[in-house]
Design brief:
Length: 130
């Protein structure tokens, strides 16, 4: 198994964005049309991540014209140009397949709040003044 990992290491991308299930991400995919290539953006909620190493995949879901569309990407594919995290999600599940049954506003995921030190200092300062 170590030999396989060493061979796979050469083909793996070094810079993959740190995202997890529940995050809203934008994936820029290279599309080849004839002799031209262009970038196509795909934005949605990550509902699953599977496997590890070179075979790692993630599934992204978004609603397009009232219809749910899911797309599975290979994390280390040369066709993926970039992955950007738009919003961090707060979920307690490893797979969000239950979103397939939901419609409208119920398909949204609660946003994870990042409480930084500056925000907590500001709140403490406001309380001590009054």
């Amino acid at each position: 198994m170590d030999i396989i990992r060493e061979i796979e290491k050469d083909f793996m991308k070094k810079e993959i964005a740190d995202f997890k299930v529940g995050d809203t991400i934008r994936v820029a995919v290279r599309i080849k049309e004839g002799d031209k290539t262009r970038l196509q953006g795909y934005e949605g909620i990550v509902i699953a991540r599977k496997s590890s190493g070179l075979k790692e995949t993630f599934t992204v879901r978004h609603i397009s014209f009232g219809e749910g569309v899911e797309r599975v990407f290979q994390a280390h594919s040369p066709h993926i140009d970039s992955i950007k995290v738009i919003k961090k999600g707060k979920v307690k599940r490893a797979r969000l397949y239950y979103l397939r049954k939901r419609v409208g506003k119920h398909t949204s995921v609660e946003e994870e709040r990042d409480v930084s030190k500056k925000e907590t200092d500001a709140v403490v300062g406001e309380n001590s003044v009054s």
